[in-house]
Specification:
four-stranded antiparallel sheet; mainly beta; globular
């Protein structure tokens, strides 16, 4: 997250209040929480996490360029 300039607060915000949710195409256990980050030019943050464990385990977090302007 540090290398990508992603703040932990943003990850928490997208996880608790996603604008869109998707299920993993190759792994049904993985969920994708997606939301815009206004503090970073409305870039779209994608948080991929494992929903089968408690607490959820974050797999990866990145700014999704394919969704820019589409959300």
């Amino acid at each position: 997250m540090a290398e990508r300039g992603i703040h932990p607060d943003w990850v928490e915000r997208v996880l608790t209040h996603p604008e869109r949710m998707e299920q993993g195409a190759n792994d049904p256990v993985l969920r994708h929480a997606i939301g815009r980050i206004s503090e970073n030019g409305n870039r779209v943050l994608r948080v991929v996490y494992n929903s089968s464990v408690e607490p959820v385990r974050i797999v990866t977090v990145y700014f999704d360029r394919t969704l820019r302007g589409k959300l």
